[in-house]
Amino acid sequence: MKDWSGSGPERITRSEFLARNPQWTDVDRETLRRVLDAVSERVDHAYRRQSYWALKPAAGTSRVPLYLHLHHLAVDRDVDLPPDLTARAFPGSRGEYDQYVIIEFSTAPQQSRAPRARSATDRAAPASVKTCPVHFVELPATGACDQCE
Length: 149
Known about the structure:
Layout: E1 10-12, H1 14-18, H2 26-39, E2 43-48, E3 53-57, E4 66-68, E5 72-76, H3 83-88, E6 90-91, E7 100-104
Antiparallel strand pairs: 1-2, 2-3, 3-4, 4-5, 5-7, 6-7
């Protein structure tokens, strides 16, 4: 394999795709295999860039079906994933409007893991804020309303 200069996308094989991160567990690689199988009909070839690897969509496919990062996969929301993988997927950074869902690997940093639902006892009570009784604005640290002066 030649050295990659970063000047353009370099095509890579499925086995290179599966071996991208040596820290992945067997479960991570199996997850990636299953997602690759799910998107195989929508793919022309795999390629890599500096910060991600991806699958070029086949003709007639509107979006890149899969982006591979070191710690997660971003899968096109329209891809039919197996039910257990669908259960692990969560919306990308744009929430419910994101075109991709994220499936994390075991190597994902803890703080970036999927948001979990918090129970009522986990939630903190809202802090009481002093407001001006005339203008209904939050009072500054001095306690005097700027608009009343």
